Amino acid sequence: MATETKPLVPPKGLKTDYPLIDSDPHLKRVFRYGRPSDYAVAGGMAAASPISFWLMDRLSPSHVGRAGFAPVLRLATAIGLLGGFHIFYQRSSNRFYGFTENSREVEKDMREMVDKVKKGEPLYGVSQLSENLQGVAARNSRYSGVFAHILPWFNFVNHNQHGVDTAKYYQQAERELEAERVGK
């Protein structure tokens, strides 16, 4: 089984209380690994903005009428949705980086990657980009979730530079395949 290639510029290793899962998770993966609590907090944050605006207008009316109130309420709703998206992305990304408790995500990651190894699929998907451009994309979006509140920058590129030793997936797959052979 082939392992992933080494990046030209390896990601900086951070000392965290929890294991690193991925230093540059794909946007789809961040949403797939989201916990129900992430969705609840994001929904609450998204609803807080328009509800707060509505309450403020009820407590201290602006007297602009429906024509003036509706566009501002839509703006407050859009701001709430953006805030909800941001808080969701931040909470899920922090678990990938090992900043917060991530045992559920570690197990899910191991299962997903071992299954891909067993099927012979590339671990992080197939990319249409050259190795060089994959490296550029990885360097530009690595740990970008930390600074997402200032510059929203997400990983949309499949590449193999995620800051983790992928040998663990291949070793686990070999152990499982050996156990399956012995068990039959």
UniProtKB/TrEMBL annotation:
Pfam families named in the record: NADH-u_ox-rdase (PF10785), NADH_u_ox_C (PF12853)
Upper lineage: Eukaryota, Fungi, Dikarya, Ascomycota, Pezizomycotina
Residue ranges annotated for the NADH-ubiquinone oxidoreductase 21kDa subunit N-terminal domain, each copy included: 16-101
Keyword field contains Transcription regulation: no
Identification of the protein by name: NADH-ubiquinone oxidoreductase 21kDa subunit N-terminal domain-containing protein
Domain NADH-ubiquinone oxidoreductase 21kDa subunit C-terminal fungi: 110-182
InterPro entries: NADH-Q_oxidrdct_subunit, NADH-UbQ_OxRdtase_su21_C_fun, NADH-UbQ_OxRdtase_su21_N
Membrane-crossing residue ranges in chain numbering: 39-56, 68-89
Keywords: Membrane, Transmembrane, Transmembrane helix
Organism of provenance: Talaromyces rugulosus
